[in-house]
Amino acid sequence: MSRNSNSRSVHWVNDQNRSPKMNHHTSRTTPPPLGSRPGDDLAQIFDDFYVDLDDVRTEHGFDPVAALKGRQDFGELLEVFNRLADRHTLLSLPNTRSLLTTNRAAACYPRPAHLIDAARNGIARLPVRIERSTVDANDRFWITRLHADAPGALRTGSEVTHWNGVPIAIAAETQGRALRGGHADARRALGLRSLPQRLVGSTLIPNEDWTLLTCLEKGRHHEVRLDWKPEPATLQATSERAPWRHVLHQTKTGDGFRCGLLNADTKRDHGDQVPAYVRLFDVPEWPQLGQLVDWLRSVTASPHRRNLVLDLRGNPGGSVETADHLVRLLGGDQQDLHEPTHFQFRNTPGVRRTLGAHPKWRHCAVPHRARTLAPHPMTCSTSLQELPPLTLGAIVIIVDALTYSAAEILVAQLRRRPDTLVVGADPQTGAGTANAWSFHTLHHLSRSQGHHVIPPLRQGLELQLAVRRAVIRDGDQWAPIPLQQVEHLVPISKDDLLHGNRDLLRHAAQLLRRDDTVSPRAQNHKKDRFGSSSCRTKETEV
After folding, report:
1. Runs of H (alpha helix) within 452-501
2. CA torsion 51→55→60→66, rounded to 10°?
3. What is the pLDDT of residues 54-107, one digit of tens each?
4. Can you tell me the distance from the alpha carbon of 509 to that of 141, in angstroms, rounded to the nearest whole number?
5. Interatomic CA distance for residues 535 and 481, integer angstroms
6. Rounded to a whole number, what is the largest CA-CA distance in the chain?
7. C-alpha–C-alpha distance, residues 267 and 265, integer Å
8. Does the N terminus or the C terminus of the chain have fewer Cβ atoms within 10 A?
């Protein structure tokens, strides 16, 4: 049984019932040192600040506080963090050289120089990108991009069947178990993405000194040996990835987005009002989307309502303020979409004391319920009111298991709009809508009366922790925003991977033409403000 938060807080703040340790040079009280093991430090931080701690304990039967206590081996610490299945909570290891000896068995054998260099540079990569198509009964995997230093035996468009002799679907799933996906689909997607590229620090360096890739080309299998490289490299621009012009026209590419109008194939069905397409690769700061907003205003200036395809696949999130502005911009005149997203902290003594020590955050340290503090917005309401909304028709939002965080907030808010359909390559998004702070931020906010209430972490560890989560108004109550469930699964084809999402965009255009696809959501809008599936609880597997 874990210790109570109230009892743990005495390690970080001076309690009048205890004799504080005195610094004779400054005559100020200083907190006693945290545990000698890094796991003890992290356990104390989780006990007071991790916003999902109660849910993880009650719903999944896993207590990260107890699991972290006494841990010292970095590999064991990473296992605890991976078991949380929380993309917002991340532990980065301090000295990349130490990663070479975290595995006791591997410490007995010398590692190749290129892996040592990879540990020093923070990345180990292979010269390929592999992506998955879902059209067939069994998933298939294809080489879609190559680095400049890729062997000549590799070709884009070749099918990959095995990774070191293991079927690649199994290899991706096995790799995903060591990552922090929110559910099985997210872990598989993360596993596939990280097979050829390992971020050393948040994961361990590869166990294998090299990799054998088995490819199927023209009915024949062949193997290619790939060595790990220590430096990042730009993927080659290939002719297969170039033909956006075949699916879009009037295209514009900016920092973090690509947009355009769907191609002439849809014009005969939509007339002059062909659907607009926007791909957001992340959610950047609002000023960075100025070009996108100007383009959207220009193409929606006519009196007719233009439909929109909003593609958020692989979007890792970013600025919540930008998400709020986009909801205001795309949400039309619906008043309940003009309210900024609110967040709640966990209600613990450590959170209240830390927030109360800083004037900017003192207003948030007000208890709302037994487990949470009062909701507070991150975006100024005045700035939202100054943004005139666009005139839009139906919206199709495309997501996948790698749609995260602020992008999920954007989906959750927009799906309350009538005539909005959420479709996906996977059944649900992948991370949830928590907001993460670095340990440096917590340490800085805890400064009170000349000293820090929370001492720094030992051994150079770096921590990112989910400290508050997004909530949405449901009448007079506030409800957490869960993972977003899709209402229509769309397959991803080989042509999508190699030819600019050609089949996917045609499929989205067909959905926009079908009145029976979007209209039922508008009919049920008043009955269910969150949508029929977006109210489901977060299904995190541990």
Report:
1. 494-498
2. 50
3. 989 988 889 999 999 988 877 788 888 888 888 899 888 665 544 544 455 555
4. 26
5. 8
6. 83
7. 6
8. N
